[in-house]
Automatic annotation (TrEMBL):
Protein name: Exosome complex component RRP45
Subunit relationships: Component of the RNA exosome core complex (Exo-9), composed of EXOSC1, EXOSC2, EXOSC3, EXOSC4, EXOSC5, EXOSC6, EXOSC7, EXOSC8 and EXOSC9; within the complex interacts with EXOSC3, EXOSC4, EXOSC5 and DIS3. The catalytically inactive RNA exosome core complex (Exo-9) associates with the catalytic subunit EXOSC10/RRP6. Exo-9 may associate with DIS3 to form the nucleolar exosome complex, or DIS3L to form the cytoplasmic exosome complex.
Sorted UniProt keywords: Cytoplasm, Exosome, Nucleus, RNA-binding, rRNA processing
SUPFAM superfamilies: Ribonuclease PH domain 2-like, Ribosomal protein S5 domain 2-like
Matching Pfam families: RNase_PH (PF01138), RNase_PH_C (PF03725)
Predominant location: cytoplasm
Residue stretches in coiled coil: none
Protein's UniProt keywords contain Ribonucleoprotein: no
Intracellular or extracellular location(s): Cytoplasm; Nucleus, Nucleolus
GO (cellular component) term, any one: cytoplasmic exosome (RNase complex)
Chain segments carrying region Disordered: 342-362
InterPro entries documented for this protein: ExoRNase_PH_dom1, ExoRNase_PH_dom2, ExoRNase_PH_dom2_sf, Exosome_comp_Rrp42_subfam, PNPase/RNase_PH_dom_sf, Ribosomal_Su5_D2-typ_SF, Rrp45
Length: 451
């Protein structure tokens, strides 16, 4: 999936802000984003956050045979992975040009600068050496991947501890962490990459560019340096021509930034080592900030309830009486309100027009039965002008059923009586002006007739 391109308006806005020495996140030209370092429960595992850019570093080791031309030196291997979890533009299972460039730059920065004593990784010359593997995973991409990856790699190497070994003749014994304390790596210095983004053909310069700033930049200069102001590697990309003064100015800025980052790394390592020695809690779960959705712990606020009654009585005694005395007070709780004066609800009352319609419908439902005589001995003709409602018709219909098997009467007279009652029900429902009034008479009559 390709990344969403910037619109012309966004591009012009970013360039105009850079010309005015303003950045979207409020930083100044030479400011770095906040760096946060957290360690896992195992040695050699860490997460480095450079703003919103997050990189996970993991160091592992194993005993292997050395290279033929370097029989007394250990092996260092670096691998950076860009997953779709970090950004949808990264394609899985395929090495992009950006990934190849970043891996080569990391190898030149850390392995070619001899920051780690590889000869100390030799166990038996020509037979057994330690292979140190550094795996870096980009968790979230918000610009300046190389700086975050270089910090994560050197922090993971400084935090890593390898198992101790002993050699007796041709036998190599590998001890577990419970049998012997692990051994840290021998590190000479800490090379750290500092990135500079150039705009308008080198006219404007920014330190630690964000993801949007990288899209509109013309070129990038990466300087890897240690706190002794020794340049480990330098790389320029983008095809812009830089002057000697520009490179010197960038190297001076990089020297200041590297010293600050190195002090931050050493402080984080000392704090983690102190917590582990004291037996305190450590790991990624403990490094999460409180009062977050992902937090595993919440600090409880202490509440003193010893003198609650005294305070309540004091508040009641000092309170002023209400200005108006209401016969039926309405108690409002916080977060609630009242609309209107609280009088009786009149929505349920019918309007005059609806009342007239119901009166007309009720008169239509009255049924006058004349001239009918039932098998049960009921003389309908004697009823005269007596009025039956819809329920009365339903009851008469029910009397036609056989009380034993609820079947219709077999006689011709009984069938004719059913027909007459059905005709009365249908005629009364047709005279009604309300469709809802047809149900109690006509439907009941038809159901009884055909069931």
């Amino acid at each position: 999936m390709k990344e969403t391109p910037l619109s012309n308006c966004e591009r012009r806005f970013l360039l105009r802000a850079i010309e005015e020495k303003k950045r979207l996140d409020g930083r100044q030209t030479y400011d770095y984003r906040n760096i946060k370092i957290s360690f896992g429960t195992d040695y050699g595992c860490c997460i480095v956050e450079l703003g919103k850019t997050r990189v996970l570093g993991q160091v592992s080791c194993e005993l292997v045979s050395p290279k033929l031309n370097r029989a007394t030196e250990g092996i260092l291997f670096f691998n950076l992975e860009l997953s779709q979890m970090a950004a949808p533009a990264f394609e899985p299972g395929r090495q992009s040009d950006l990934l190849v460039k970043l891996n080569r730059l990391l190898e030149r920065c850390l392995r070619n600068s001899k920051c780690i004593d590889t000869e100390s990784l030799c166990v038996v010359a020509g037979e057994k050496v330690w292979q140190i593997r550094v795996d870096l995973h980009l968790l979230n991409h918000d610009g300046n991947i190389i700086d975050a990856a270089s910090i994560a790699a050197i922090v993971a190497l400084c935090h890593f501890r390898r198992p101790d070994v002993s050699v007796q003749g041709d036998e190599v014994t590998l001890y577990t962490l419970e049998e012997r304390d692990p051994v840290p790596l021998s590190i000479h210095h800490m090379p750290i990459c500092v990135s500079f983004a150039f705009f308008q053909q080198g006219t404007y310069l920014l330190v630690d560019p964000s993801e949007r700033e990288e899209r509109v930049m013309d070129g990038l200069l990466v300087i890897a340096m240690n706190k002794h102001r020794e340049i480990c590697t330098i790389q320029s990309s983008g095809g812009i021509m830089l002057l000697k003064d520009q490179v010197l100015r960038c190297s001076k800025i990089a020297g200041v930034k590297v010293v600050e980052i190195t002090e931050l790394i050493q402080k984080a390592l000392e704090n983690d080592q102190k917590v582990r020695k004291e037996g305190g809690k450590f790991g990624f779960a403990e490094s999460m900030a409180n009062q977050r959705i992902t937090a595993f712990k919440m600090e409880k606020a202490p509440i003193d309830t010893s003198d609650v009654e005294e305070k309540a009585e004091e508040i009641i005694s000092e309170a002023e009486p209400p200005s108006e005395v209401v016969s039926k007070p309405v108690l409002w709780t916080p977060g609630t309100a009242q609309i209107g004066e609280g009088i009786e609800n009149s929505w349920g009352h019918l309007e005059d027009s609806e009342k007239e319609d119901e009166d007309e419908g009720g008169s239509d439902e009255a049924i006058i039965l004349d001239g009918m005589k039932m098998d049960t001995g009921v003389e309908v003709s004697n009823i005269g002008s007596q009025v039956f409602s819809a329920c009365s018709v339903a009851k008469l219909l029910l009397t036609l059923k056989d009380p034993i098997d609820c079947s219709l009467p077999d006689s011709v007279c009984g069938i004719s009586q059913v027909r007459i009652l059905e005709w009365v029900a249908i005629s009364s429902s047709r005279q009604s002006s309300h469709p809802r009034d047809q149900t109690p008479v006509s439907c009941i009559g038809r159901w009884i007739l055909y069931h």
